[in-house]
Amino acid sequence: MLARFLTNARGGVAPLMAVIAVPVMAAVGMAVDYSRVNAARTAFQSALDATALMVSKDATNQRLGLQLGWASLVGGGPFPVPPPKDPLYIYTDVIILLTDGLNTQNRWSTDQNTIDTREAMTCSNLRNAHVDVYTIQVNTGGDPTSTLLQNCASTSDKFFLLTSADQMTATFNKIGTNLTKLRVAQ
Predict the structure, then answer these.
(1) 3-state SS of 36-83?
(2) What is the model's pTM?
(3) How does pLDDT run across 90-111, given as a tens digit for each residue?
(4) Domains of the chain, residue spans
């Protein structure tokens, strides 16, 4: 029966199926890729929404920003795991923490000392992991200079206190120049 089917010249189903199979398989592959991208985008949007909800409560959780920055470097949560690092190349992981408010919120406590202690612990863990941290405090409302942010910066020259919007461009130019020097020197 199989021999008769293969030698039958009256039907064009087999050649038609062979021609159609290629675009159908490509469409299936694209659908799978799209669903993966969409799932990653949804996870990332959820993280952004959570951050937006935090901001909408008129509170600042700097530690959360540091943790999300760190997760983006090492992978985890909504962030994909980065490719392995080449052992013959010297990498520098960098986080730039920009905040327009004092550290006033976390999900475990409303006590300011506890909130700051938890952030200081994150900063210490980043230092131990050899992550280079720049901190920028935008202070246009007369808040005190944040000792916490000064101490979180990897070195004293990596803390910036901005008192006007005009300083933003110069600050990021300085950080960009420092990062460029780092790359060229290595």
Answers:
(1) HHHHHHHHHHHHHHHHHHHHHCCCCCHHHHHHHHHHHHHCECCECCCC
(2) 0.64
(3) 888 999 999 887 777 777 777 8
(4) 1-56, 59-185
